[in-house]
Write a structure and sequence with these properties.
Belongs to the alanine racemase family. It catalyses: L-alanine = D-alanine. The protein is of the alpha/beta class and 347 residues long. The chain has two domains: 202 residues, Alanine racemase (TIM Barrel), CATH 3.20.20; 93 residues, Beta Barrel (Lyase, Ornithine Decarboxylase, Chain A, domain 1). Helices cover 29% and strands 23% of the residues. The chain contains eleven helices and 19 strands. Strands 3-4-5-6-7-8-9 form a seven-stranded parallel β-sheet. Strands 1, 11, 14, 17, 18 and 19 form a six-stranded mixed β-sheet that branches. The protein has a two-stranded parallel ribbon with strand order 2-10. β6, α6 and β7 form a beta-alpha-beta unit. α1 packs across α3 and α3 crosses α4. Bound molecules: pyridoxal-5'-phosphate. The site of pyridoxal-5'-phosphate has 12 residues, from α9.
Length: 347
């Protein structure tokens, strides 16, 4: 095998969905967020596995993603679009039965004019100032919206990964104030909000990253594993250097394996210093710079030359890599790129 392999454990994925589903009352529906190609792991495969596990509602960022997802899921599951009803999206929304989350008065007008009677949701801004109607806009529109085919009222928490942050209670109060008395299903929480407790659950939760094994869902089972093929192995004498800019110099006889993946595969250059590859359980430190397509690894201490080395496993998770790169697991997952051979197991 000459290409890097990204193994996606669909059984761990569906187990994570079930655990997050069980974290809320049985009256609360648990949807699944599969935007950005299922956080890089393949929206179609991921969504089909989750649909088999019982998920009936899916969220994507863009109508185009929704259109692709519809092909994978077939009719039946509800597909909701966070970006709402954008100019040019009308045919897709209609033909593929997508449910736009309307974010402004403009989107609302566009939607009811172009597709009267077509279901929609409304996204409210409760303080994040990113997407959704402001309180004033919603107040002006609310009575009209509630007489249309409205399926969901939602908002999004800015600080749910920090349970003690006062912003959580502030947004909860704002959401209640804007939506109490509306006889429409409500949704406030993504992964982090689910873990804040039942006050935050309302009628529907929208987990994303937790399904894929990432924080803030600390009890998640890892879903993604990466194995990288070794292309070449060489011995270095003390004083020899490795990689671009000679950033690493051997101080003793050293055996270096060159592995076929690099920053073009989401193995970010900045994560180099603390990141290791694994030969089964044995950690092997990276040496020198991460290149676009290649990594160099110290295997001096191995008793056998490895055919491949693992980047992501139960010991080094997406969140370990995120720490090493000064980022979050979300960015690691969605940066993995198109070059991996994706293998789906456990379904
Ligand atoms: C991405 C997103 C989610 C899912 O968030 P996670 O933190 O990945 O669980 C839910 N709702 C909205 C509006 C989002 O943008």
């Amino acid at each position: 095998m000459s290409t890097a392999t990204l193994t996606i454990d669909l059984e761990a994925l569906t187990a994570n969905w079930r655990t997050l589903n069980a974290a809320s009352d049985t009256t609360v529906e648990t949807a699944a967020v599969v935007k950005a190609n299922g956080y890089g792991l393949g929206a179609g495969r991921v969504a089909r596995a989750l649909a088999r596990a019982g998920a009936r509602k899916f969220f994507v960022a863009l109508a185009e993603e929704g259109a692709e997802l519809r092909q994978a899921l077939g009719p039946g599951p509800e597909i909701c679009v966070f970006s709402g009803h954008m100019p040019g999206d009308t045919d897709m929304i209609h033909d593929l039965s997508l449910v736009p989350m309307l974010n402004s008065i403009d989107q609302m007008l566009r939607h009811v004019e172009a597709l009267p009677g077509h279901p929609f949701g409304v996204q409210l801004d409760t303080g994040m100032n990113r997407l959704g109607m402001e309180p004033g806009e919603w107040a002006a529109l609310r009575d009209i919206a509630l007489t249309q085919n409205i399926k969901l009222i939602m908002s999004h928490l800015a600080c749910a990964d920090a349970p003690d942050h006062p912003m959580n209670a502030q947004q909860l109060a704002a959401f209640r104030q804007m939506t109490d008395g509306c006889d429409v299903p409500r949704s406030l929480s993504a992964t982090g909000g689910i873990l804040l407790g039942s006050d935050y659950h309302f009628d529907l939760t929208r987990p994303g990253v937790g399904l894929y094994g990432g924080l803030p869902f600390a009890a998640a089972r890892p879903v993604a594993a990466i194995s990288l093929p070794v292309i070449q192995i060489r011995d270095l004498d003390p004083g020899e250097t490795v990689g671009y800019s000679n950033t690493w110099t051997a101080t003793q006889p050293t055996r270096i394996a060159t592995v076929a993946a690099g920053y073009a595969d989401g193995i970010l250059r900045v994560m180099g210093p603390n990141t290791q590859l694994f030969a089964d359980d044995i950690a092997c430190p990276l040496r020198g710079r991460i290149s676009m397509d290649l990594i160099t690894v110290d295997i001096t201490h191995l008793s056998e030359d490895p055919k491949s080395l693992d980047l992501l496993n139960d010991r080094q998770t997406v969140d370990t890599l995120a720490d090493n790169a000064g980022t979050i697991g979300y960015e690691i997952l969605t940066s993995l790129g198109a070059r991996y051979q994706r293998r789906y197991v456990g379904a």
